[in-house]
Amino acid sequence: MEAATAASLASSSQPEAVSTAEFSLKPQARWPPRAVWAALHVCGLALLEVSGGWPKEGMLVWMQPLLFAMTAVLYMGASFRNPGYAEQPPRDLATALLYQPCAHCGAPLAPRTKHCHDCCRCVRRMDHHCWWLGNCVGERTHCNFVGYLLVQTLLLVITGILAISRCVIGLGEQDQAEVPAPLALFAAVLCAALCLLTGLAALTLLLFQVALVLRGETTWERLRRPQLNAAAKLKPDARPYDRGVARNIFIFCGCESDPGCPAWEENSEWQRAKYADSLCLPVSYAAAQPISGTMHPVL
Fold it and tell me: Kind and range of the H or E element at 95?
């Protein structure tokens, strides 16, 4: 009788288990954005060389190639590395009873985990999907991504300054060069414009990311903060995972493991007092938006 009951329970819960065929969606191609990134950098450096603005003396002789090499290494680290995909659990009866699977990929829902529709996977502590990387910015690549933005911004600023200085020389006295003066001036102007546009975008994104790190938030959590806090019955401006600037930096850099829970669930009286004026203190997790593959604290 018990064996029949167990078999019946297993068969009835079988639809809850995740099948591989059901979630066999094809992720977006990763190579086109990487090819575009490489082409833009090659074009920018080629324009700088054609304009005659490539440094030939001083500290920039070795700093420019070093910044380019660091940018390429950090980019490849953020682009090719696993961003922190949620592990697929064993598809058995116990797993079906203990975990609520994502509606898209079947991974178990967990706090701060978000499903990426471009990668077709759930990513732990997902920040956003970066088209330029062809990859998600998540738990394992976020620190690498911010470092890449820093070095990329420095490279664009220095290259832009060199191109602008070449424009000034071109408008004044043109020294002897291997290319005609009009062509060198055109290359310098084009390189300066390219560096100005992309440099402003990189700098803006870098400042935004640094602000999020100091507050213990991700981009997705910041953009959806009102909806998430409303579902958790918190104040609209509450930041559940903010543990102070120092701890936020340590967790972000990997010096401290991420507790994976709101700050008030840790055994700290001052953290509980910090959120004491909220409507309530969430004590458990539930899928308020199961279709998105996201978990956040609710009562």
Answer: helix 93-98
Around Cβ 56, how many Cβ atoms within 10 Å? 8
> Which secondary-structure segment (H or E) carries 145?
helix 142-171
Tokens standing for 16? 């809850």
3-state secondary structure of 124: strand
Long-range interactions of 37-41: CB distance < 8 A, separation 24+: 37/75, 37/132, 40/194, 40/198, 41/68, 41/71, 41/72
Structure tokens at 297: 């604290």
- Token pair listed for 199: 């440099």
pTM: 0.78
Amino acid at 108: P
Number of H helices, E strands in the chain: 10, 6
- The answer to whether residue 130 is catalytic is yes
CA dist., res. 131 & res. 268, Å (int): 40
Catalytic residue among 105, 116, 122, 130: 130
What whole-number distance in Å separates Cα of residue 247 and Cα of residue 242? 9
Distance CA(111)–CA(109), nearest Å, equals 7
DSSP string, 201-249: HHHHHHHHHHHHHHHT--HHHHHTHHHHHHHTT--TT--TT---HHHHH
- 79-133 pLDDT tens trace: 999 999 988 766 655 555 566 778 888 787 778 888 998 988 899 999 999 999 9
